[in-house]
Amino acid sequence: MKRIYLLLLVVAVAVIFTACQKNPAPKEVSPVPNTYISISQEEAKHLMDTETGYIILDVRRQDEYDAGHIPNAVLLPNETLAETAESVLKDKDQLILVYCRSGNRSKQASQVLADLGYTNVKEFGGILDWQYEIVIECN
């Protein structure tokens, strides 16, 4: 009989001990990484025709921009974008449509912008495939 009481006492102490322990802290959930969206050139053109307050961002070099760019595009070369973006692109929630020559630099630049906290970045490839109007700078 003493063994049963002793066993019940041990079980009771174990239950009380585990009940009094603090719950482990919840695992910290890592935030969703900032990202951008790739869209077709048709979708980009539609946004240009129907939206307001957006920026068309050309991330090529100056000489490429001068040879032909989308009307009203702002030039911020990919090579210096991380250092210059915040001084030119003030509103981090503004729609930013990003392109380059073939689509490689625009993807890189879009990720840089997303990493800087820009929330509405849409990458649409390269001007080589652009079927719409372009502007050529005459020097």
What keywords describe this structure?
Oxidized Rhodanese, domain 1; five-stranded parallel beta sheet; 5 helices; elongated
Give a structural overview.
Helices cover 40% and strands 14% of the residues. It is of the alpha/beta class and 139 residues long. It has a domain at 37-129: Rhodanese-like domain (Oxidized Rhodanese, domain 1), CATH 3.40.250.10. Strands 1-5-4-2-3 form a five-stranded parallel beta sheet, sandwiched between helices. The termini are far apart.
Topology:
Elements: H1 2-20, E1 37-38, H2 41-50, E2 55-58, H3 62-67, E3 74-75, H4 81-88, E4 96-100, H5 104-115, E5 121-126
Overview in brief:
This protein is α/β, with parallel strands linked by helices and 139 residues long.
Proportion of helical residues: 25-40%
> Beta-sheet strand percentage?
5-15%
Termini gap: 105 Å
CATH homology superfamily name of the domain at 37-129 = Rhodanese-like domain
Number of strands: 5
* CATH-defined topology of the domain at 37-129: Oxidized Rhodanese, domain 1
Mean pLDDT: 87
Number of helices: 5
Calculate Rg over CA atoms: 28 Å
Pattern of helices and strands: HEHEHEHEHE
Question: Given this structure, which CATH class of the domain at 37-129 is correct?
Answer: Alpha Beta
- At CATH level 2, the architecture of the domain at 37-129 is 3-Layer(aba) Sandwich
Low-confidence regions: none
Shape: elongated
Helix/strand-derived class? alpha/beta
Spatially, the strands of the biggest sheet line up as: 1-5-4-2-3
Query: Major beta sheet, specifics?
Result: 5 strands, parallel
